[in-house]
Amino acid sequence: MPMKHITRTEINIGARAAPLIARVNRRAKRLILKVDPIAGEIHVTAPSKRAVPEAIRFAKDRIDWIASQLADELRAKPFANGMQVPYEGSQYIILHDDKLRGAPRIENDGEPAIVVGGRAEHLNRRLCDWLKREARRRLTERVDHHCAQLGKKRGALRVRDTRTRWGSCSSEGDMSFCWRLIFAPPEILDYVAAHECAHLVHMDHSPAFWRVVRELGTDAGGAARWLDANGPGLYAYGAMTESPAPHPPA
Questions:
Q1: Is the pLDDT score of 125 beyond 90?
Q2: Fewest C-beta atoms under 10 Å: which of 38, 137, 145, 173?
Q3: Buried b / exposed e along 155-182 (16+ C-beta atoms within 10 A)
């Protein structure tokens, strides 16, 4: 395994400083620049220790692009009492009630709210766990619906904190989805479910594959545009660690 050397510094992005982490990877063929909007960090990779100063200059020369990737709406937003969050496409306020026992619950008397019990310091974890269960429930329902339409059987269905895509389907029919789809409107979650089910028929993105997606009654173009515009922001909710935003389903 190639040895890695890590240099930590900061660069100014407008009126604030952002952490810059430079790594050496001898397998790298060129300078690589990546931005983690959730953690608010900039990462550069150099092929040698000698090239690290050049890599840092490389980042500084691209301040405008970096600033566009570090928009405030993409920064990590741990759940907290009184915070507004999306749930199935609608806005809810988080209310902490330390007397509540059991799972979080939805309340629609007055302003829509998600009420979370337990100790305040556990609110983020408890709400994330509940949202993951809700995502699994909704995705299982939609995947099984589309499988029935196609006359196909799926494999295992997993809901994860995926880091590269909203959904995936293996050649064995196992499916994996990003739990943060529960924040999106139902038709967006349904599209991702249908997209992966269509791979049970065609393991590619051929015209025949897209015909199957259309036959399942989803708006692929509209959903892709929505995910491009809104998806990165969804990944910020409940996040407390660094991770890149998911890409569209493949």
A1: yes
A2: 137
A3: eebebeebeebbbbbeeebebbbbbbbb
The confidence band for 68, taking pLDDT boundaries of 50, 70 and 90, is confident
Range 205-214 burial, b when 16+ CB lie within 10 A, else e: eeeeeeebbe
Four-way CATH pick for 84-234: 3.30.420.40, 3.30.2010.10, 3.30.300.30, 3.40.50.300: 3.30.2010.10
**Whether pLDDT at 58 is above 70:** yes
Count of positions (residues) in the chain = 250
pLDDT digits (tens, 9 = 90+) for 200-234: 999 999 999 999 999 999 999 999 999 998 998 89
Are the C-beta atoms of 198 and 151 separated by less than 8 Å? no
Structural domain boundaries in the chain: 6-74, 84-234
* Beta pairing, strands 157-160 & 175-178: parallel
